[in-house]
Amino acid sequence: MKSALTLSIFFVLTFPLLQAQVLEETRVMSIGSKPSLTIVLPGADTKVADAVWKEFIKPYGKVVRVKQSKENVASDVQILDIGGVNRLNVYSLSEEVADGAKMVVWLDMGPDFISSEAYPKEYVAGVKFLKDYAQMVKVNMITTELEEQQKVL
Length: 153
Prior knowledge:
By secondary structure, the chain is α+β, with helices and mostly antiparallel strands. Helix 1 (2-18) packs antiparallel against helix 4. It has helices spanning 2-18, 46-57, 80-83, 120-152, and strands at residues 22-29, 32-42, 63-65, 72-77, 88-97, 100-108.
């Protein structure tokens, strides 16, 4: 019985995220209109999205709030897959959407922000980075749901 319940919860929560896509958009942020990567996290709320983001970024640097803005930034971080040895500023913003939360991420390479045109190789790595983050959100949501179900049993 527990196995069937666990399996059904797993499929219900993971099916929408299997089709999660990272989109490239130009979004207004604290320092102007810049290229960004966005991903929708079905079933998540902004509190979960932000908490998991802070945990996800922790190995690279500390996330702090940008003054007079809703955005967060991890300054001077090194993400080898994206920038190599170069340091990045990673801006983020979570927003509520109809079916969950949306995470918007701006990757500042210094002279410019990552986009598919300006930095195609880094863009692909950025997409993978956000998909890895979405996977971590999914695992967090499943773990929370399992803990709640175990309390009921």
